[in-house]
């Protein structure tokens, strides 16, 4: 089976319903989402299945949802069939609330690091923020795509922060505090519970 088609040799790529340049902002957005997905896959290889079964289940779901986001961004048909939905955002919020109550109270900003899995989750978090910025640029340019993708990416970066902290705390590894930071978290970094 050949995986190369040669159709992109002149700097264009296929969308769902069209073609565009490989440096098109839409391609940049879903390409960055693919980058997030790859680092999440790497983090999953660094998490012990017995200790982090819940995180692994979350991350596997997130990988599929990110693929949906990418597909939705690539869909330029007149009648697109989007997959990303608000339920995914709400599920992330519920998981964030659970995870943020687990690690020690947080007073200062923290620096990426700790266990290999936590460090990788922080990389995924920062790339998620970049993907979100790309979708903001697309929206400003008047490009059509589901607005829920921006909300999903915003919430995902919060989830990955919470997951990185849990990846450290369950292995008894302290978060690396930014020592020049004042005490900035009044509630100890706990998430505010949402009304059901």
Automatic annotation (TrEMBL):
Residues 1-23 are annotated as: Disordered. Pathway: Cofactor biosynthesis; adenosylcobalamin biosynthesis; adenosylcobalamin from cob(II)yrinate a,c-diamide: step 2/7. GO terms for molecular function: ATP binding; corrinoid adenosyltransferase activity. Pfam families: Cob_adeno_trans. Its EC number is 2.5.1.17. It catalyses: 2 cob(II)yrinate a,c diamide + reduced [electron-transfer flavoprotein] + 2 ATP = 2 adenosylcob(III)yrinate a,c-diamide + 2 triphosphate + oxidized [electron-transfer flavoprotein] + 3 H(+); 2 cob(II)alamin + reduced [electron-transfer flavoprotein] + 2 ATP = 2 adenosylcob(III)alamin + 2 triphosphate + oxidized [electron-transfer flavoprotein] + 3 H(+). Keywords: ATP-binding, Cobalamin biosynthesis, Nucleotide-binding, Transferase. InterPro entries: CblAdoTrfase-like, CblAdoTrfase-like_sf, PduO-typ. GO terms for biological process: cobalamin biosynthetic process. Residues 3-167 form the Cobalamin adenosyltransferase-like domain. Belongs to the Cob(I)alamin adenosyltransferase family. NCBIfam families: PduO_Nterm. Homotrimer. This is Corrinoid adenosyltransferase. It comes from Planococcus rifietoensis. The lineage of its organism: Bacteria, Bacillati, Bacillota, Bacilli, Bacillales.
């Amino acid at each position: 089976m050949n995986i190369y088609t040669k159709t992109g040799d002149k700097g264009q790529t296929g969308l769902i319903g069209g073609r565009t340049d490989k440096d098109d902002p839409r391609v940049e957005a879903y390409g960055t989402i693919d980058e997030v997905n790859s680092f999440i896959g790497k983090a999953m290889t660094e998490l012990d299945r017995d200790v982090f079964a819940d995180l692994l289940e979350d991350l596997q779901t997130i990988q599929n949802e990110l693929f949906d986001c990418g597909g939705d961004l690539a869909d330029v048909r007149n009648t697109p069939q989007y997959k990303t939905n608000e339920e995914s955002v709400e599920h992330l919020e519920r998981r964030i609330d659970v995870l943020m109550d687990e690690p020690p109270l947080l007073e200062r900003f923290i620096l990426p690091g700790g266990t290999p899995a936590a460090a990788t989750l922080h990389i995924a978090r920062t790339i998620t923020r970049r993907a979100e910025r790309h979708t903001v640029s697309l929206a400003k340019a008047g490009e059509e795509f589901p607005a829920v993708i921006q909300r999903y990416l915003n919430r995902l970066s919060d989830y990955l922060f919470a997951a990185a902290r849990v990846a450290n705390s369950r292995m008894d590894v302290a978060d690396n505090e930014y020592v020049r930071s004042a005490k900035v978290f009044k509630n100890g970094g706990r998430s505010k519970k949402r009304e059901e």
